[in-house]
Amino acid sequence: MMLTLMINGDPVPYHGDPRRSLLEVLREDLHLTGTKDVCGEGFCGACTVQIDGVPKVSCLLPVGSLAGAEITTIEGVSNIETLTAVQKAFLEYDVVQCGMCFPGMVLSMTHFMAENPSPTRAELKSAMTGNICRCTGYERIIDALISLGADGFGSADEVCP
Amino acid sequence: MMVISQDGLISVTRVSQALDILTRLGETATVMAGGTWVMREARDRTFVSLANIPDLTDISLDAQTLVAGSMVTHQDLCDAITGAPDLAALATAAGKSATPAIRRMATLGGNLCTRDFYSADLAPALLALNAEVDLETSSGRQTLSLEDYLNTPVDRPHILLRVTVPRTAARSAHVRLMQRQAGDYPLAVVSLSAVITPDGALRDLRIAVGSVEKRARRWRALEALCEGQTMTSDSIRTHAALRASQDFVGRDAVDGQGWYRLRVLPALVARAFSDMSRTEQGAGR
Ligand SMILES: Cc1cc2nc3c(=O)[nH]c(=O)nc-3n(C[C@H](O)[C@H](O)[C@H](O)COP(=O)(O)OP(=O)(O)OC[C@H]3O[C@@H](n4cnc5c(N)ncnc54)[C@H](O)[C@@H]3O)c2cc1C
Ligand code: FES
Ligand code: FES
C-alpha cells in the first residue's frame, strides 16, 4: 500500500514495509542524511526529528504510523540564510565539534526553548537527557542556550523554526 | 471505520478488531502501542496498532479516582497528575523515566504489558498506589488488581484498556537508581505510599520494588514490619537491610549484578521514605 509522508512541507510517496523506521527511510530512500543513525535504540537522540512540532526519535517510529503527520528534519528547520535562534547561538558560541549529535540537539532544544524561553541550567540539563554528545561536555551548549534570553538572539517566537 | 492494512502494520479502530486479528495471526503478530519496544524487539511480526482506537488516550482525574487509558504516554500522564500528593510516585515515575523524547512516545500500556522488559518505572509506582487494570480478552472483559495482572498468566491475546488508581489521603514517592544521572534504565526502583498519622505512624503502607527481579512486586515482608510503626529513614533502612536478601533474588544483567541491586535497596527505601515524609507533594527523584 502507498503512503504519503509530509516531510519538511513536501508530500513524499512511500511504497514499502510500514515497519521500516522513519530514520531508515529518511537516510536510505530520501538521502536526508542530516538525521543521524547512531544507536538505533532510542538512547542517543542523534536521530531526533519533530513530528507535528514535537521531538521524537525517528529510529523507533515505524513509517507506516506517520500518514498525515508533519515531519520536520534538520534540513527543514531553516535554510543557510535564515538560521534559527538556536542554530545561531550554537554557531556564535562555537559549540559544535564532530557534529554527530547536533541535528538532534537542534530539533530537541528548539522545541524546548520555544516552550521554556528562560530556562535554568538544571532545566536545560534535564531537557537534554536523551541527546548524548560525546565531544563537548555540554556546558558550552548550555551557555549558548542560556544566552538566547539574555543577549538578543530573539524571543520565544523567533526561536521556533 | 475499517481496518487499514499495510501488510506489516494493521491499524484498527476497535478493540474487538485487534483481538480478532491477534487471534488469527497468533505469534506472528504483536500489539503496537508507542512502538518503542516492538521496533527494537519484534520487527519481524505484524504490528497491530492501537493508535486509532478512540478512548484509549483519555485521562480523567477527580477526587475519587485517576483513570488513564492504556495509550496515554508517560509525558501526558505526568502532566495530568503533577501536584497530586497521593500520586507523586506515579508523576515521578512517568516524568523521570527514559528521556523526554521516549516519554512522548512510550505508553502506559506498553510499560505494563512488555513482559520481557524488567526495568519498568510505572509498574512499581502503580503497585504502590494499588492500581487496577481493565482488560479485554476473547472471552470478555476482566478487571484485575495490577498485582494479579503482573504475576499471573492472563488469557492471550488480550488488550489492556485502562488503569484505575483510587485516590487516598496517602502520600507517595518513587526513587530510581541509575548508572548515570539520567537516560539509562534504572538498576533498582522503590515506590512507596502511606498515610502518616498525626502521631507519626505509617498506615496503609505499600512498598513496591522494580528492576531488581524480572517483574515488579510488592515488598510485603517489609510492609508488615513497618505498618502501624513510627519510622525514621534510618529505622526503615535497617529493616530493609535485614530483609532484602531474604525477600529478593537480584537479577544479573549487563547494566548491573544481582548482588548490587540488593545492596542498594535499603538506601533507596530510606530515600523514598524521606522524600515522602519531607514534602506535602511526596516529591521523588
Ligand atoms: C531509550 C529508552 C529508555 C527507556 N527507559 C525507560 C525507563 O527508564 N523506565 C521505564 O519504565 N521505561 C523505559 N523505557 C521503556 C519504555 O517505557 C518501553 O519501551 C515502553 O514502556 C513500551 O511502551 P510502548 O508504548 O512503546 O510499547 P510497544 O513497543 O508499542 O509495545 C510493547 C509491548 O507491549 C504490548 N502492549 C502494548 N500496549 C498494550 C496494550 N494496551 N494491551 C496489550 N498489550 C500491549 C505489545 O504487545 C508489545 O509486546 C525506555 C525505552 C527506551 C527506548
Ligand atoms: S539513533 Fe535513534 S536514538 Fe540513537
Ligand atoms: S559534537 Fe560530537 S557528539 Fe556532539
TrEMBL record, chain A:
Record Gene3D superfamilies: 3.10.20.30, [2Fe-2S]-binding domain
> Where would I find the 2Fe-2S ferredoxin-type domain in this sequence?
1-77
Task: Write the record's keywords in alphabetical order, separated by commas.
Answer: 2Fe-2S, Iron, Iron-sulfur, Metal-binding, Oxidoreductase
The UniProt GO MF terms for this protein read: 2 iron, 2 sulfur cluster binding; metal ion binding; oxidoreductase activity
Signal sequence segment: none
PANTHER family to which the protein is assigned, alphabetical: OXIDOREDUCTASE WITH IRON-SULFUR SUBUNIT
User: Can you name this protein?
Assistant: Carbon-monoxide dehydrogenase small subunit
Originating species: Celeribacter baekdonensis
Automatic annotation (TrEMBL), chain B:
Specify the domain of life of the species encoding this protein.
Bacteria
Q: Which Gene3D superfamilies match?
A: 3.30.465.10, CO dehydrogenase flavoprotein, C-terminal domain
Matching Pfam families: CO_deh_flav_C, FAD_binding_5
**What is the protein name stated in its UniProt record?**
Carbon-monoxide dehydrogenase medium subunit
Does the keyword Flavoprotein feature in the UniProt annotation? yes
Tell me yes or no: is Disulfide bond among this UniProt entry's keywords. Answer: no
Show where the FAD-binding PCMH-type domain sits: 2-170
The organism of origin for this protein: Celeribacter baekdonensis
Molecular function in Gene Ontology: FAD binding; oxidoreductase activity
Enumerate the SUPFAM superfamilies for this protein. CO dehydrogenase flavoprotein C-terminal domain-like, FAD-binding/transporter-associated domain-like
Keywords annotated in UniProt = FAD, Flavoprotein, Oxidoreductase
